Amino acid sequence: MAAAWLMGEGPERAALLAEARAHRAEVDPAALPILLPARLLDRRWAPWQKPLALWWSARRGRY
Question: What residue ranges do the domains of the chain occupy?
């Protein structure tokens, strides 16, 4: 996911994201403390929004 974030927009990025999202169900819950902060790289978050974004991502299984 971090590589896709660094790539910017384009078909290669879309393909990389599609492949990564296909493997979401296989993610070990023990890895979530490492993976969830990567969600914060997508955009700028206010300090009060960061914990809420991490909680919501973990609750919905979106990482």
Answer: 2-60
